[in-house]
Write a structure and sequence with these properties.
Blueprint lengths: L4 E3 L21 E3 L11 H5 L5 E3 L20 E3 L20 E3 L20 E3 L19 E3 L10 H4 L6 E3 L18 E3 L9 E2 L24 E4 L4 E4 L6 E2 L8 H11 L1 H9 L8 H9 L3 E2 L8 E2 L2 E9 L8 E5 L2 H10 L4 E4 L2 E3 L1
Parallel strand pairs: 1-2, 2-3, 3-4, 4-5, 5-6, 6-7, 7-8, 8-9, 10-17, 13-16
Antiparallel strand pairs: 11-12, 11-19, 14-15, 16-17, 16-18
Bound molecules: zinc ion (ZN).
The site of zinc ion has 8 residues, from loops.
């Protein structure tokens, strides 16, 4: 037997086997998949200082003890297919953890402090009951974020535009709209079967395939800004942070100008973000600063970031049988007009009515 690895999966264990203690000095990897283990004993955390890998998928765990943070060398933790309703925030102290799989549980919300996990590369939370993601996720270096089969309404722009992100899956969720920015390194996005999605920002076009052409029935959400498409008889939802759709070139609000100005100085913006205190700012402003811009102006020649106001455009591809509606947001009517002029051979705009 390899003194560093223990394969005790599929053994019908009803509890964590005490025999493990005989190997506490050497063990680095423990496989206890598909047993009937209901709890993790605290002696595991005190005795196994070399542990790097724990596979506990398919057991009956309802909690993970907070002492998990004592396993300082842990790199891989699989607690999928258990009965967990939450993960302890002490997991955030596992500085070496690269892989965390907590899929197929009953987790409702993700712990705050996940942003401290600088080594985390893969996070799988599929098949849980998540309604939202903490913005802290954007502070990690995640390359792979798997969120299929949850109740998520949105993925914050700041998370979708993470520099490290390569793979994002959020199939069969309740997404109502998509962020207008996708990270430069993203190569793979799967967002099939989100029946409330009515339009896709043009940045997603390269990720879409023909069988993606899925059109939902009229689904409306009460507290979100919507516009109406007369030709399609559809209502479509604008990203949550958009508070105002502008139709002409009149000046933006002072709030919008201030937020753009703050973000234009990125180092300073990052410092402000890191030192935000929730009750010192109006909630709306706090959220705008914390979550960052919703989109870059769709006109590639323009550097403006958009926070609360935009010129919104919906379009379809020319000579395409596809029913997919694409969207784009611009900082001004001038940018919108310029973009459509450049891309008129590829897309044609479709009409919509501002829905109040
Ligand atoms: Zn612009």
């Amino acid at each position: 037997m390899n003194p560093h690895i223990l394969h005790w999966s599929y053994r019908d264990f009803r509890e964590f086997p005490n025999e493990l203690l005989d190997h506490s000095d050497t063990l680095e990897e423990i496989y206890l998949k598909e047993n009937f283990i209901p709890t993790i004993p605290k002696w595991l955390f005190h005795s196994f200082v070399h542990l790097k890998f724990i596979q506990l998928s398919g057991n009956l765990l309802q909690t993970i003890p907070r002492e998990i943070c004592d396993l300082r060398n842990l790199e891989h933790l699989d607690v999928s297919k258990n009965k967990l309703i939450e993960l302890p925030e002490q997991i955030g102290q596992l500085n070496k953890l690269q892989y965390l799989n907590a899929s197929e549980n009953e987790i409702i919300s993700l712990f705050k402090g996940i942003g401290a996990m600088k080594s985390l590369e893969t996070l799988n939370l599929s098949k849980n009951r998540l309604r939202e993601l903490p913005i802290d996720v954007a502070s990690t270096s995640l390359a792979e974020l798997i969120l299929n089969d949850n109740d998520l309404i949105e993925i914050p722009t700041k998370i979708m535009s993470m520099e490290s992100l390569k793979v994002l899956e959020a199939e069969r969720c309740s997404l109502e709209y998509l962020p207008g920015i996708v990270g430069d390194r993203v190569t793979h996005i799967r967002i099939f079967n989100n029946p409330k999605l009515t339009h896709y920002p043009t940045v997603y076009e390269k990720f879409l395939r023909l069988h993606y052409d899925y059109w939902s029935e009229n689904v409306v959400s009460a507290d979100l800004l919507m516009i109406f498409l007369p030709d399609e008889s559809k209502r479509t939802i604008v990203p949550r942070q958009v508070e105002r759709i502008r139709l002409d070139n009149s000046p933006n609000s002072l709030t919008e100008y201030c937020l753009r100005g703050l973000y234009a100085n990125r180092p300073y913006y990052e410092i402000v973000c890191a030192n935000l205190v929730e009750n010192e700012l109006p909630r709306r402003i706090f959220r705008c600063v914390q979550y960052g811009p919703i989109c870059r102006c769709g006109n590639g020649e323009c550097d403006n970031m958009l926070f609360t106001e935009c010129h919104f455009s919906l379009m379809k591809k020319n000579q395409s049988p596809s029913h997919i509606i694409f969207s784009n947001m611009f900082c001004s009517k001038t940018c919108l007009t310029k973009w459509h002029e450049v891309f008129k051979a590829k897309y044609h705009p479709i009409d919509w009515i501002h829905f109040v």
